[in-house]
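$ ./design --mode recover --in tokens.txt
reading tokens...
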């Protein structure tokens, strides 16, 4: 150990001859790195998407050269933002140019390499499907449209993207849209606002998008009623606002007789109907409707290096596009004679999969051979229903054969290395390695000077992160549209703010009535009321078990009725735990090798 430390200090001493500024500039974390990425891949030709060009470590006075995009894409909007990112303990400034693009034609397209400040990004290939063009639903100056994306059939508990778009050609002073709702379905937000300008016909519109994920919870016809939009539009002379935007100027509401002048209007979107299909005939067990499913594995060491008593960590990863975390089945490694397997509890998480919304879960399995010789771990399969091809498919990992070598001392299985206490350092005898020489002290002093100087220099150069740009005034509220006779001005929407207590009472009532679908909806609403984007993370083991049983019943086709007593009892314990502590301490994994009598 002392020899390793000495070599490290000597290496640092050799670096001491480099000036501090040059050393910091040569750090890879602070070097300029220009790259391009797509935040969400478009589903078809008419859907806009955002291309993010990132430059890390420095800024550029000139924007990136985006001229090559004109061949296949139309640039609808462009903006710049900055943020600070922590990488390996260092604060790095990242400058981003965000371009809103739409494909000019379907097919396999390429976002070419773009450049800024002498650096170039890598090209990006994507496939654009043919689709209907996005356009205002009518000729009104302000209109709202609801669009259901995806291709039927839609199944119970599947993920259905819903987009609400406002088309504005008069420069609305303020606008508030309601949440889409449907009897027999739940909705959760999917990202924030997206705003861009686009020309339809000979008129330029400001388009504002809000995205949601709809989860149907009953079969048959499900209707999304009209969504209300309350807005204030300017009363300026005809054409004044359009002329201002044409000249590249901001909206000028004072042209109508006062800065706050405006006419209050309420418009409604088109209602949408869709058919929700039941579980396909012949499908048993866990039902997983999705657009794609990928099952992967990785090993901490090659399986060919297995030894009796030594642990190999096998990581199983399931990636599902078009599904929520609650829909993912548990990953389990079958028991096999000749090995012991210890699996942790993988927690499904929402994630982007192949450019679309999906979910991912990882399970780590410690595989410990208990005897020498050949052992075959059987294949692992995950059945699922392909909603694109409308057929049953299976994602499979092939069988793995281990040839375990006998341990050197002839011992049997032992705990993985991560759970074995490290041996205490043995005392070093006095001698050549026992003391600190003058060269060691000098090297240590140089290292300290370098570290202190680097920290001081970084602190002087550090700048606070710039605030994110303010969002547009159109935002998702809790407004329920009141429609009478299908008229456009049929009543004033009533505010219905999300409330944690009300959501908890709704969940309790659903448990009392033993209504599984209503309990699932109330659980999602409770998550949104608590400030999240979906279902909240359980604090207690009882709540995690109860929610898992609810998902098992909904997704795996549980027989008989659902008993909400366990979830109601767990909800009470969950609320007591939330009130009893100000900060929740994450519960760790159970030990792979439990201590106590009988443990081996």
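writing sequence...
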């Amino acid at each position: 150990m002392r020899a390793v430390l000495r070599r490290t200090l000597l290496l640092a001493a050799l670096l001491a001859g480099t000036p501090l500024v040059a050393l910091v500039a040569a750090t890879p974390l602070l070097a300029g790195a220009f790259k391009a990425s797509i935040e969400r891949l478009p589903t078809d030709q008419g859907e806009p998407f955002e291309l993010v060009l990132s430059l890390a470590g420095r800024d550029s006075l000139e924007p990136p050269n985006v001229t090559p995009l004109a061949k296949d894409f139309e640039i609808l909007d462009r903006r710049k933002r900055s943020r600070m990112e922590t990488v390996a303990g260092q604060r790095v400034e990242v400058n981003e140019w965000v371009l809103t693009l739409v494909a000019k034609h379907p097919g396999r397209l390429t976002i070419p390499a773009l450049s800024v400040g002498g650096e170039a990004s890598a090209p990006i290939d994507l496939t654009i499907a043919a689709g209907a063009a996005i356009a205002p639903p009518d000729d009104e100056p302000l209109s709202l449209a609801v669009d259901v994306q995806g291709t039927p059939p839609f199944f119970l508990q599947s993920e259905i993207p819903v987009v609400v778009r406002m088309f504005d050609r008069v420069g609305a002073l303020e606008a508030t849209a309601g949440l889409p709702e449907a009897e027999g379905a739940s909705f959760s937000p999917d990202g924030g606002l997206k705003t861009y300008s686009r020309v339809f016909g000979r008129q330029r519109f400001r388009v504002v998008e809000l995205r949601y994920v709809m989860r149907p919870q009953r079969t048959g016809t499900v209707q999304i009623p009209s969504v209300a939009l309350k807005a204030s539009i300017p009363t300026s002379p005809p054409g004044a606002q359009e002329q201002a935007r044409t000249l590249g100027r901001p909206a000028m509401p004072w042209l109508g007789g006062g800065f706050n002048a405006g006419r209050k209007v309420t418009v409604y979107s088109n209602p949408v109907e869709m058919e929700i299909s039941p579980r396909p005939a012949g499908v048993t067990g866990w039902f997983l409707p999705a657009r794609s499913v990928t099952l992967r594995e990785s090993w901490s060491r090659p399986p060919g290096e297995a030894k009796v008593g030594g642990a190999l960590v096998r990581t199983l990863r399931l990636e599902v596009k078009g599904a929520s975390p609650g829909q993912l089945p548990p990953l389990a490694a079958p028991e096999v004679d000749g090995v012991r397997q210890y699996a942790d509890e993988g927690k499904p998480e929402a994630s982007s999969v192949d450019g679309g919304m999906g979910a991912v879960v990882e399970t780590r399995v410690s595989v410990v051979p208990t005897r020498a010789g050949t052992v075959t771990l059987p294949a692992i399969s995950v059945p699922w229903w392909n909603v694109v091809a409308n057929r049953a498919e299976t994602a499979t990992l092939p069988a793995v054969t281990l040839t375990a070598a006998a341990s050197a001392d002839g011992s049997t299985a032992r705990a993985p290395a991560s759970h074995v206490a490290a041996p205490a350092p043995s005392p070093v005898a006095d001698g050549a390695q026992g003391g600190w020489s003058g060269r060691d002290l000098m090297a240590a002093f140089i290292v300290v000077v370098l570290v202190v100087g680097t920290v001081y220099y970084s602190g002087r150069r550090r700048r606070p992160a710039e605030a994110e740009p303010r969002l547009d005034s159109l935002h998702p509220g809790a407004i329920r549209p009141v429609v009478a006779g299908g008229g456009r001005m049929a009543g004033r929407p009533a505010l219905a703010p999300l409330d944690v207590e009300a959501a908890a009472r709704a969940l309790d009532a659903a448990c009392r009535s033993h209504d599984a679908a209503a309990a699932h909806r109330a659980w999602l609403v409770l998550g949104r009321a608590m400030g999240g984007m979906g279902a909240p993370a359980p604090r207690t083991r009882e709540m995690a078990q109860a929610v898992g049983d609810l998902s098992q019943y909904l997704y795996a086709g549980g027989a008989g009725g659902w008993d909400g007593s366990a979830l109601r009892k767990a909800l009470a314990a969950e609320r007591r735990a939330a009130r009893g502590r100000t900060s929740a301490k994450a519960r760790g994994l159970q030990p792979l090798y439990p201590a106590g009598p009988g443990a081996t």
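exit 0
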